[in-house]
Amino acid sequence: MSRRAELLAPAGGFDSLMAAIQGGADAVYFGVEQLNMRARATMNFTTEDLPKIAAIANEHKIKTYLTLNTTVYDHDLALVKRILQSAKDAGITAVIASDQAVIASARSIDFTVHISTQVNITNIETIKFYALFADVMVLSRELSLRQMKAICDAIEQEQIKGPSGALIRIEVFAHGALCMAISGKCYLSLHTHNASANRGACVQNCRRRYSVTDLEEGHELEIDNEYIMSAKDLCTLPFLDQLLQTGVLVMKIEGRGKGADYVKTVTQCYREAIDAYYSGCFDQEQVASWMERLESVFNRGFWSGYYLGQHLGEWTDAPGSKATQKKIYIGKGNHYYPKIGIAEFDIEAYPLQVGDKVMITGPTTGVVETVIESLHVNDGGAADIAQKGDRCAFPLPVPVRNSDKLYKIVNV
Amino acid sequence: MPLIIHQREKCIGCNYCVEIAPEQWRMSKKDGKSVLLGSVNKKGFWSLKISDIQAEANEKAALSCPVKVIQVR
Predict the structure, then answer these.
(1) Do A141 and A243 lie in a common domain?
(2) Name one GO biological process term (chain A) (predicted).
(3) Domain range holding B20?
């Protein structure tokens, strides 16, 4: 195989961006301002952040993809142009677009375009059409491996090339939340809350429990699983070898709304799995250990999506995450003594004890995990426990900053 | 007199307030967010006093805002 698949991770903020880099991502995707599918997320970047994102990415030699893939109205057009120009000037690699206005605007300034899953590409003729504008295309999440392979083979055979002159690369979702609607084109949240998923404002009401009532006689029907619309999360790791054999070249991890710890863990697992595949040592024993790690972070239970073809939808039976571990906020960073390698934290919420497994996250730090082996509390010297209000210190090989947060990791 | 408060920064530009209360709202072609016409900005909170007659439409606009950045009180 001449071309290697790229691992694409979500960056909802600077902490997730660092976590994606630490996890070994080849590229990250992110949104700025309100025109992306996570417009509701409070941690969206602004246009002013673009140069800093590009600088961090260049330093770590990863690519950067800007999502600008919502429904676009007339009043958005000036903002679209401004975002695209700023992204190009900052050196962002490409834009992930779905609306034709965005695609046309980006091409008019010679900015590389990727076609979003929102476009719902399901056949080779559509690939040929968008090849006039784009170099990478995300397939519809509803295709099977067989269908993906047919498309990838046809690109190779028919030598379908994008504006860059290189063969079209196919991207697919490898891991993360799946929604019941076809590739995110859902009306439910708009219908009930006036909050359009297609403007990035989905309230995720499909994730709730529902009952069915007979309006004539008022009988409420029992449904085995009340989470009738909430799909389990996609996880392709157990059959990643088959997925890579189709010829897809970009593996995307969903989750711009999720925490930095999630991004780092999932990216790491897929990084190791992809590398194992290319070095010929991908096996089920490793899959089991990766799955254990994936289950430790946010998930609604896993299934193989529509990729293996034979399953009907699988629905979750829980309102939120089934993660085997959770994080509890403890306090914030205060100081780091680089010569002796000691990190100092202010305890703001719950006590911290020797033996605790902790995680530190922050916009520069990314995600760092460690186990507390010794603890100094206030000026009282070594202690076993630090309480709320205390200032404590423990050895840590990497620097911490004031913007860092300290979490305790516990089993659920 | 009723008062409209708009936390403009969090607007996602869905256009519903303009549809429901066009007398007070316009979409900005500059940044794609809605503008409360004639309002005064204080630390990101844009406010405007309106008449009782105008309140009803704006209450509906507040109710329909998907990110809840409009308040009428």
Answers:
(1) yes
(2) proteolysis
(3) 3-72
